[in-house]
Every structure is written in structure tokens, then in C-alpha cells.
Amino acid sequence: MLHRLQNSRNFLGLAFMLPAGVLLLLFLTYPLGLGVWLGFTDTKIGRGGEWIGLQNYEFLWGDSVTRLALFNTLFYTTVASVIKFGLGLWLAILLNERLPFQTFFRSVILLPYIVPTALSAIAFWWIYDSQFSIISWALVKMGLIDQYIDFLGDPYNARLATIVANIWRGVPFVAITLLAGLQTISPSLYEAGAIDGASGWQRFRYITLPLLTPIIAVVMTFSVLFTFTDFQLIYVLTRGGPLNATHLMATLSFQRAISGGALGEGAAIAVAMVPFLLAAILFSYFGLQRRAWQQGSDQ
Amino acid sequence: MKASDNDTQGMAYLASLPRRVVTLYIPLLIFVFVLLFPFYWMAVTSFKPDNELLSRSGNPFWVIAPTLAHFKKLLFNTSYPEWMWNTVFVSVVATFVSLLASVLAAYAIERLRFRGSRQVGLSIFLAYLVPPSILFIPLASIVFQLGLFDTKWALILTYPTFLIPFSTWLLMGYFRSIPFELEECALIDGASRLQILWKIVLPLSVPGLISAGIFAFTLSWNEFIYALTFVSSSEVKTVPVGVVTELVEGDVYHWGALMAGALLGSLPVAVIYSFFVEYYVSGLTGAVKE
């Protein structure tokens, strides 16, 4: 009996899945459901909540700070993701060239991605300091500005400053992954293209881009997902200020739920991110997959 | 554009040197400079005495009289050593737990092919896409109900939720590359599945285990939102949270100590990563390409 169980794929599969399954069900699936439920209650820290239906969502819809946070999140995600993609692709193409110290370049490039974001954000905090910013210092010395820039104290500057820090952190990931994609493209395709008289741009457009599309889809799905739900960079740099100009959905949710004690409301803000995330996944994944398929079938 | 304007690999030797300098070396050096500057700035600041830090004259890019005062303050007047120990402990245990669970899960999905294994594999992938910033509120209340609030176990048990999906996914790819025939031979010889996993599959997937381990370790070292939410006493905090919440007091920022804390907290992952960079990069790219 025991022997037969040991040889049954289904039984063994279940047994092998058990540790991972229990941890994921208890600390991922269950909280996901609990979060949705909390969003429909008026739970506060230290006090259980009552079911209040859509009241949280109705309140949040009319709440100007939430709307601003939603706008900020979309703005932050769009601008940062587009620039991360552009710079990442450029860097990947540069690294794909024959270079001296190739391995060295590839490894140091990834450092911003490895180091804890909270800690590199502190470095950016210091770089952006209103009185001692090295950027302001350099610009003043070059005679380009006369006043030190208030990077994090002014709403517009703060938005740009946080986006720049996010791009800095995200470009290495995009670049290294796209580089891996570039390396799977056979050089003979480029040689054939060159013999047929294709220009550099044409070879990029008709060889590199189509063959890279599937990996672009995956990388951008991740990039958009992680940018949209970013928390630590904003928390460290601005805590959502000045005047809520840099609040993202995640930081607002933390502020309302943990600092403010309104767990139900915070959970509702977190749950409100889900539709956008699903849309981003579906759009970038299926959209780009389909394009790759269409381009493949043209030939 | 003429044919001589090639700038793709394979024909690079055709491009002239000045052209390569403008299109390749200068942009690349700018990238490297910008990506590494914050670390340089972190390091320089942590060795600067306060009077140099807070002066606008002179050249801020260099230290005239380097000092270890900030490190001394950090190590002897704050709980920094404790945070360091907590981070090491939590990261090592969470990595170990996750690797164990992931090896078993990946083997089951990829090799046992039990009924529903494809669906399980897909849901593991989807689990990776669930961001911590959606989960931290309900998780906080679960952690509280389990009596784990403000303990290291709150972190050790919740970190696997993002470590397991990634490691499993990565290990599935490695297991797939091992020929089935090896296992079949062992099965015929009467080896059990656990023996096969332990004696045949694992030794062959050491590179995969290393990259999954480094990923899990760096991800737990970097984790912020759970550690910020589930822990409140200074003696349980991890380095990222401790530096952000406890080294910043009032209106006076101790920039030197802050930068020293950020530098020391970044070093362990940077060192480990630099030893295993090849595994890390191939793991990262392999996992995304799957």
C-alpha cells in the first residue's frame, strides 16, 4: 500500500507541492481574498469592521487625494516605463557590441538593481537635498543656474525627481534582459541584411525589433507592474508630499491603513490597483504577443 | 546610410574608430557614470567630516580629511549591528525555506507531471505577479492574529510568498534541461523519487540552485514594505527599514551616518552578487525568457 502510494504520481505530486502550497495559500491566496473583503468593511486598527458594501469605493471616488494619487500613479508609470524602455534598449544595444571589458560593464550596470531600493533612495535623497544637492552645486558652478533647486519641495520637481530615481533603478533590469534577447539573434541575419543593402535602421526595424518582441513583452509587463505598485522609493524620498504631489496608490494605501488606522479604506485603495494591473498584464502580454505572431506569419 | 555605416555585431570591425567613440564609447561611459554615481556619492559622503559635508566651498567630489566618525557612530551609538544581524538571519532562513519548498514544487510540476500540474505551474507564475503593496494590509492582520507581529518570524514566513514563485519558475527551467533518461534508469534500478531528486537532479542543477539562492537572498535583503509594516521595535528591524525610520530624527539629518548605513547595508548583496554575477545574469535572463 505504502509502496503503491510512493509510486503514484498524483500522490507524490501532492506531497511535493505541500510546503510551497501551504505557504502560498496561507500567506498569498488567503490575504488576497481577505484584502478584497476588507475593502468592503470599515475595519480600523484594533477594531473589527462591519460590511459596508461599496461605501469605501464611493468615498474614495469623491476623494480628491485619491484621484490625485491615481493620476500620479498613471503618470509615474507611463513616463518612467517609456523612458526605462528607451534607455534600456539603447544600453542593451551598446552592450551587445564587441567591447573591451565586456563582462565588467555588464556586471557593474546591474548594481542599481541589486542594491536595496530603500538604501539607494536615501542616496538620492541626499543628492536632491535642497541646500547641499550636488546637482545644484554643479549647475551653479557651471553658471547654468543661480539658485539651488528645491528638488523635493516643489510639486513638479518632486514628481520629476522621483521618476528619475525610479528610472535609474529600473534601466539595468530592462537593459540586461533585452541584452539576453539580443544575443539570441543570429549575426548571420544581420550579415544577410547588410548584403541585401539594408541600412542600420532598417536592420534594427526589420530584424532586431520583430525578433525581440516576445522578450520586450515580458520585460515591459514586469516593468509596468513593479512601477505601478512602487512604494519604497516614494516612501523614502517624499512620503507622498509635497501637497500629495507624489502620492502613489501604494503609498496612499499605506498612509490611510497603517499610519491612519483605517484598514478597510487602505485595503480598498490597494484593491483598486488590481484592475489596472490586470489591464497592464493583458495589454502588454497579449498585445505584443499578437503582433509578434502577425509579423511572423507575414513571411 | 551606406553599407559602411554598420554598427551591429559581426561587422563592427568595419566601423571607423571615431564613429565608434561617438556612437558607442561616449554613451556607454555616460550610462556607467550615471548608474554608478549615487554609490560613489554615498561612499564619499560617509567618509566626510561634518564641516566638509555642510560647506558649499571647495570641491565636494573629494574628501580632504577622511573620517570614520560616521561609521563609529553607526556601529556603537545606534542599533545598526542588530539590524544587520536581523537582515542576515531573516534573509538566510527565508531563502533556505523558499529553496526547499521550490525544489520540491519545481520537481513535482516539471517531472512528476501529476494531474493538474500544468495549472499549478501557471498559478505559481501568476503568484509572482501579485505585488506586495496589495498584500501588506491583509497580511498585517493575519500576522497579528497569528501572534507573529513584531517578530522575525513574521518576515521569515511572509517572504517566501514572493521568493517561492520566482525560485520555482527558475528551477523548473533547470530541471527541464536534465535528460529524462537519467531518471528512467534510476527508476528501473529501484530508486525512489526523493533519491532521484537528491542524487541525480540536484547535483546537475547546482547553477540553478545558486542563482535561485542569490535571487532569493537579494530579494529578502531588499524587502521593505513587509518589514516596515509587520515590525515596530528597533531590535527586530531590518537594515533598509532601520536606516529609513530610525536614523532620521527631527530636522537635523545626520547625512554622514545615513550614507554610511546605506553603504554598509548595500555591501553584502553587492559582494555576493559580484562573486556570482554570471549565475545571477543567466538566471535573470533565463527566467524572463521562459
TrEMBL record, chain A:
<keyword id="KW-1133">Transmembrane helix</keyword>
<comment type="similarity">
    <text>Belongs to the binding-protein-dependent transport system permease family.</text>
</comment>
<keyword id="KW-0472">Membrane</keyword>
<dbReference type="InterPro" id="IPR035906">
    <property type="entry name" value="MetI-like_sf"/>
</dbReference>
<feature type="transmembrane region" description="Helical">
    <location>
        <begin position="267"/>
        <end position="288"/>
    </location>
</feature>
<keyword id="KW-0813">Transport</keyword>
<feature type="transmembrane region" description="Helical">
    <location>
        <begin position="107"/>
        <end position="128"/>
    </location>
</feature>
<dbReference type="GO" id="GO:0055085">
    <property type="term" value="P:transmembrane transport"/>
</dbReference>
<dbReference type="Pfam" id="PF00528">
    <property type="entry name" value="BPD_transp_1"/>
</dbReference>
<keyword id="KW-1003">Cell membrane</keyword>
<dbReference type="GO" id="GO:0005886">
    <property type="term" value="C:plasma membrane"/>
</dbReference>
<protein>
    <submittedName>
        <fullName>Sugar ABC transporter permease</fullName>
    </submittedName>
</protein>
<dbReference type="InterPro" id="IPR000515">
    <property type="entry name" value="MetI-like"/>
</dbReference>
<keyword id="KW-0812">Transmembrane</keyword>
<feature type="transmembrane region" description="Helical">
    <location>
        <begin position="167"/>
        <end position="185"/>
    </location>
</feature>
<feature type="transmembrane region" description="Helical">
    <location>
        <begin position="74"/>
        <end position="95"/>
    </location>
</feature>
<feature type="transmembrane region" description="Helical">
    <location>
        <begin position="12"/>
        <end position="32"/>
    </location>
</feature>
<feature type="domain" description="ABC transmembrane type-1">
    <location>
        <begin position="70"/>
        <end position="286"/>
    </location>
</feature>
<feature type="transmembrane region" description="Helical">
    <location>
        <begin position="206"/>
        <end position="228"/>
    </location>
</feature>
UniProtKB/TrEMBL annotation, chain B:
<keyword id="KW-0813">Transport</keyword>
<dbReference type="Pfam" id="PF00528">
    <property type="entry name" value="BPD_transp_1"/>
</dbReference>
<dbReference type="InterPro" id="IPR035906">
    <property type="entry name" value="MetI-like_sf"/>
</dbReference>
<feature type="transmembrane region" description="Helical">
    <location>
        <begin position="120"/>
        <end position="147"/>
    </location>
</feature>
<feature type="transmembrane region" description="Helical">
    <location>
        <begin position="252"/>
        <end position="276"/>
    </location>
</feature>
<comment type="similarity">
    <text>Belongs to the binding-protein-dependent transport system permease family.</text>
</comment>
<keyword id="KW-0472">Membrane</keyword>
<feature type="domain" description="ABC transmembrane type-1">
    <location>
        <begin position="84"/>
        <end position="276"/>
    </location>
</feature>
<dbReference type="InterPro" id="IPR000515">
    <property type="entry name" value="MetI-like"/>
</dbReference>
<dbReference type="GO" id="GO:0055085">
    <property type="term" value="P:transmembrane transport"/>
</dbReference>
<keyword id="KW-1133">Transmembrane helix</keyword>
<feature type="transmembrane region" description="Helical">
    <location>
        <begin position="153"/>
        <end position="175"/>
    </location>
</feature>
<keyword id="KW-1003">Cell membrane</keyword>
<feature type="transmembrane region" description="Helical">
    <location>
        <begin position="83"/>
        <end position="108"/>
    </location>
</feature>
<feature type="transmembrane region" description="Helical">
    <location>
        <begin position="21"/>
        <end position="43"/>
    </location>
</feature>
<dbReference type="GO" id="GO:0005886">
    <property type="term" value="C:plasma membrane"/>
</dbReference>
<protein>
    <submittedName>
        <fullName>Carbohydrate ABC transporter permease</fullName>
    </submittedName>
</protein>
<feature type="transmembrane region" description="Helical">
    <location>
        <begin position="196"/>
        <end position="221"/>
    </location>
</feature>
<keyword id="KW-0812">Transmembrane</keyword>
<dbReference type="InterPro" id="IPR050901">
    <property type="entry name" value="BP-dep_ABC_trans_perm"/>
</dbReference>
